[in-house]
Design a protein that fits this description.
single chain; 304 residues; 8-stranded mixed sheet; two-stranded antiparallel ribbon; 10 strands; globular
Length: 304
C-alpha cells in the first residue's frame, strides 16, 4: 500500500499542496492512506478525493481573518522587509476577561473546513477504500492520537481536522470527551510510523522544513515572537525525532521512504497567512517535485 504523509507547518502547507499536486496529477500515484498533521490534515481529504484545484483555491486565498475569529497578534513589516508579530493587546485582554485559556481563537478555521469539505465529499471518502487520518495531541492524557475518517460522522471528523491544526495557545484549545486537545504537531510532526503501522509499504513524506538547518532565526522582538521561536525550536526537535524513528521502522518493515523537504526557508512565522506568498509557495512545491522526480527513481532509504 502507498501512503502520503504531510507534516505540520502552518501557512507552509501551500508548498505541500504543490508537491502533492504533482505527485497525484503528473506522477499518477494512487494512495491508499493519507495522514496529515496540523496543516497537513487540512489538505489530505481533498487530495484523497482528487479535488486538488478546490483545496488549492482555499490555500491560496486565505488570510488572517480566514483562520482567526480572535487574532492575538498584529503583523507589521520591519525596515528589512521581514514580517514581525506584535501583541494585539485589545483581543488578548478580551480573551482573558472572557476566561479563555488561549490568547486567540480559531473558530473561523473550523467554519472554513466545513465549508470546503461538504457532507457529500465526506460520504464519498468514507465509502472508498482510502484511509484519511489526522493527528491530534491529547494534552490531558499526554499522548498522540490518530483519528480516521472511517470512525466518525461528518461533524466529528471535521472537528478533529480543526483540532489537529489548532496551534495553542495562539489558537483554540478544544475540550472533547473530557480531555483537552490541541495541534497534532505537539506530539507527532511527521507521522511516518503511523503510516507503516497501518500497512503502508511505500510512503511519500512531505516535510515542511529544510533537510538541514539554514541560517539563524530572527531575534525575538517581543514576548509573542519569543514564544513562536520557542515553539519552532520544539517542533523542529520533534520533527527530527519523528523522522529518525520513521527511518528505523521503515528499515525493520522493509518499506520505502521518499522525502520531499522544502529546499529553502519559506518563512520564520508560519502563523502569518499571506495569500500572495502562499500562491507562490504552491507553485514552488509543484516545481520542486517536478525537478526531484525528473529522471529519478527512488530507492529504499537505508541511511540513519
Amino acid at each position: 500500500m502507498r501512503a502520503l504523509v504531510i507534516s505540520g507547518g502552518g501557512s507552509k502547507g501551500a508548498f505541500a499542496g504543490g508537491v502533492a499536486q504533482y505527485l497525484i496529477d503528473e506522477m499518477k500515484y494512487q494512495y491508499d492512506i493519507f495522514i496529515g498533521t496540523s496543516t497537513g490534515s487540512l489538505l489530505i481529504s481533498h487530495l484523497a478525493l482528487n479535488k486538488v484545484e478546490e483545496i488549492k483555491q482555499v490555500f491560496t486565498s486565505v488570510n488572517q481573518s480566514s483562520i482567526f475569529s480572535s487574532c492575538p497578534f498584529v503583523i507589521k513589516t520591519d525596515r528589512h522587509g521581514n514580517k514581525v508579530i506584535e501583541i494585539n493587546h485589545i483581543n488578548v485582554v478580551k480573551s482573558f476577561l472572557k476566561g479563555k485559556k488561549t490568547f486567540g481563537e480559531s473558530y473561523n478555521l473550523k467554519q472554513l473546513i466545513m465549508k470546503s469539505l461538504t457532507v457529500s465529499d465526506f460520504e464519498d471518502l468514507k465509502k472508498s477504500h482510502k484511509d484519511v487520518v489526522v493527528t491530534v495531541s491529547n494534552l490531558s492524557l499526554n499522548r498522540v492520537e490518530y483519528k480516521s475518517i472511517k470512525d466518525f460522522d461528518y461533524y466529528e471528523f471535521c472537528e478533529w481536522v480543526w483540532i489537529s491544526a489548532n496551534f495553542a495557545p495562539f489558537m483554540s484549545l478544544v475540550e472533547k470527551n473530557g480531555c483537552e486537545y490541541a495541534d497534532g504537531g505537539f506530539g507527532s510532526m511527521v507521522p511516518i510510523e503511523e503510516a507503516i503501522s497501518r500497512g503502508a509499504t511505500e510512503i511519500d513524506v512531505i516535510v515542511l522544513q529544510t533537510e538541514v538547518s539554514i541560517g539563524n532565526h530572527q531575534r525575538s522582538k517581543n514576548a509573542f515572537s519569543l514564544m513562536t521561536n520557542i515553539f519552532t525550536f520544539m517542533s523542529n526537535r520533534i520533527e527530527k525525532q519523528n523522522i529518525h524513528i520513521g527511518k528505523l521502522v521503515t528499515i525493520y518493515n522493509h518499506a520505502t521512504l521518499n522525502f520531499y523537504y522544502t529546499p529553502t526557508i519559506l518563512t520564520n512565522n508560519a502563523l502569518v497567512f499571506d495569500a500572495k506568498l502562499m500562491t507562490q509557495w504552491w507553485q514552488n512545491g509543484y516545481e520542486y517535485a517536478r525537478r526531484k522526480n525528473k529522471g529519478c527513481n527512488f530507492a529504499v532509504y537505508n541511511e540513519i
